């Protein structure tokens, strides 16, 4: 196994008296695509926020080899700024660290659908286009691991397929590691090689997607879908 | 005719002062979401400080820049107190800025006393189309044009300016790309202090100010800024110039004591109009 780009050990996140994450441990290796599935309120968002440094954990560690970038749930555009400006702001952390900022032209090569939208206000785009911008903005941070919080939520199946294709290609061609948080377990298992099942703040199962999908008790119990 | 021209120019100059104050309100609101009621205080501090620096022997230019810098520092301090604690909402921050304005009264009276003060501006007049126009008025108009152009370019063309707008429009996304949203808000408060201070040093030679002049300034600045929903500098400028000219005409042809009433009535009318329009839009959207 190659070195992990993301290593979460014994992570605890609390909001007041409520425990959102209870000693969560997981790892993602370089170039790996890992799914994180679980019902609503399982603690997925808390895990994302802790990895991104947006909430302070009560215990445990998050170790990153390189940068993490987030494609946030709900796309989270800067609505009044152009697509190009939205992308450029994705390089904020890099610029602060003094490394040379990636040019938005790079994103238009990787995600050619965005090139003709570059002057439009992000707030005026369709959901699928905004999700594409959210991808591009995250890539501007030159991440070692891309965290995708709900890839397919609210998007048409065709759009989801396009985005999944981009994700697969970025992973295969550029060795980008991916953590995919996804309500649609079938899609997640289809894209990723390994998966973690999170429920009530704890990792309840982990393993290769093929195995997890076979063990129907896990899928039925934790994902609420029948294979 | 020359009376009218004189009223127009002095109205525009005073309106420009209000516009500078409003631009500070807009900057702070755009970036931090806070309605900063201490904005008038920044102008008072800078106006009074400029007078003291001049009496202490500092030359013109240096004294004004020093006073504006001091106002920037006061702005930063206000931002720290009002928004520095994580989790302070915009409404709580609003009340804190209001409170800081009153605390500042005490400090200002201790330092400068409670009487109105003024300092000499750019002296002399020039004759334009038969009317005598004060050079200070022209200076204020030119300075305002410069500030608004620079501010517009800053927010629309520079990386930092776009980031400041972004931090306000979507704090979660801003934090996800690594921005420190609280620090961005503080930068906006400091900039708001500089803008308010600029209004103060330019207005003081035209209207002597005292510790409680912030009420007059914030009333007019807020009335102007609310025209653009506290977010659009261009509309705030248009609002401020309209107010300045309307008040100069009221003072010139009717009675100077009606001036502030004009601002209040205009502000109320705009807020009622905007509230009714918003409700209509909400109902439209709910359909």
UniProtKB/TrEMBL annotation, chain A:
Origin: domain of life: Bacteria
Biological processes annotated in GO: L-amino acid transport
Entry-linked Gene3D superfamilies: P-loop containing nucleotide triphosphate hydrolases
SMART domains in alphabetical order: AAA
All residue ranges annotated as the ABC transporter domain in the record: 6-225
Record-level Gene Ontology MF annotations: ATP binding; ATP hydrolysis activity; branched-chain amino acid transmembrane transporter activity
Keywords: Amino-acid transport, ATP-binding, Nucleotide-binding, Transport
PROSITE patterns: ABC_TRANSPORTER_1, ABC_TRANSPORTER_2
PANTHER family listed in its UniProt record: HIGH-AFFINITY BRANCHED-CHAIN AMINO ACID TRANSPORT ATP-BINDING PROTEIN LIVF
Membership in a protein family: Belongs to the ABC transporter superfamily.
Name this polypeptide is given: ABC transporter ATP-binding protein
Native species: Actinomadura rudentiformis
Lineage, uppermost ranks: Bacteria, Bacillati, Actinomycetota, Actinomycetes, Streptosporangiales
UniProtKB/TrEMBL annotation, chain B:
Pfam family, one: BPD_transp_2
GO terms for MF: transmembrane transporter activity
Signal peptide: none
UniProt xrefs under InterPro entries: ABC_transp_permease (IPR001851), BCAA_transport_permease (IPR052157)
Transmembrane residue ranges: 6-28, 40-59, 65-82, 94-113, 138-160, 181-203, 260-276
Single Gene Ontology BP annotation: amino acid transport
Family, similarity comment: Belongs to the binding-protein-dependent transport system permease family. LivHM subfamily.
Protein name listed in UniProt: Branched-chain amino acid ABC transporter permease
Organism: Actinomadura rudentiformis
